[in-house]
Amino acid sequence: MPREGLEVADVFRRFGPAFREQHDASLSGARRRAMIAIESCRTAALGGHVERCGACGHQRIAYDSCRNRNCPKCQGLARAQWIADRQAELLDVPYFHVVFTVPTVIGVIAFQNQTVIYDILFRAASETLRTIAADPEHLGAEIGFLGVLHTWGQNLLHHPHIHFLVPGGGIAPDDKRWIACRRGFFLPVRVLSRMFRGRFMHYLEQAFRAGELDFFSAHRHLNEPAAFLRYLAPVWDTEWVVYTKRPFAGPAQVLEYVGRYTHRVAISNNRLVSHGQRQGSVPLEGLPRRQSPENHAPGCQ
Q1: Is 274 exposed, middle or buried (0-12, 13-18, 19+ CB in 10 A)?
Q2: Distance CA 105, CA 108 (A)
Q3: pTM higher than the cut 0.85
């Protein structure tokens, strides 16, 4: 059970300054800003505002939220609005849930080159879907889809993959009619998997030759072309995982699932069990505490 009142912000406030000093060279500006925002969220550091009840006139002071997308206490309202907007865009057709996953070897590269690799992941997966769907031997139509990147798995380890919500059909080449998929079947996963692997590896090697990848620490040797190619060699013999399935409860269920991660981080407050260090448990007494529920700013639960 999570410890009452324990927050990610408590951990960051206590250990954040030392962590940032120790990892100064490898900590990106975005991560540094996120840590500081979480530490400051709903504290006097960000200021506050007066809330007034329209019925009884009661007033209270509430500290402002940081609104950083990585903060466990923020983004609830934005998440709900995103899901509602996407649901309004759904077509009255069957949908399929398609997931593209990269092997662990690629995950290591992605961890040290996130912006470049995640862009390649989206590009390779989306091109694969559109190319196979446009092939007359399969669907022969121009399709559309929604894709959401997840960067961790249920065990909280780094695990980049993309969830796609895809209508079961598309627009014919003449732009005059709808071509539906066969009942209960979207596109062959083995064909998707092999094209995805080829497209991804093409763009990955292209990025390496352009000097867009950078490796450090234990993987610094991958900056050398020969070492990089040797490292990637086993990937060509691996079947890349592509999952496709029609959502049993409809597309709204998949939207609700992926929507949880569009405005949420892996380490949420309710996952925390204890707060301590190797020498033993560190008491929370003396740490800045979060506000009680009645003092939360509205719309940021």
Answers
A1: exposed
A2: 5
A3: no
User: What string of pLDDT tens digits covers the 301 residues of the chain?
Assistant: 444 578 888 888 888 888 888 888 778 888 888 888 888 888 888 888 888 888 888 888 888 888 787 787 777 777 788 888 888 888 888 899 999 999 999 999 999 999 999 999 999 999 999 999 999 999 999 999 999 898 877 777 788 999 999 999 999 999 999 999 988 889 999 999 999 999 999 999 999 999 999 998 889 999 999 999 999 999 999 889 998 888 777 888 888 877 776 766 667 777 777 777 654 433 433 333 333 333 332 233 2
Q: What are phi and psi of 24, to 5 degrees?
A: -55, -40
204 burial type by CB count under 10 A (0-12 exposed, 13-18 middle, 19+ buried): buried
Q: What is the C-alpha to C-alpha distance for residues 60 and 295, in angstroms, rounded to an integer?
A: 8
| Residue 184, CA atoms < 13 Å, CB-side half-sphere | 0
CA angle 21, 116, 104 (to 5 degrees): 85
Size of the chain in residues: 301
Structure tokens at 281: 């448990």
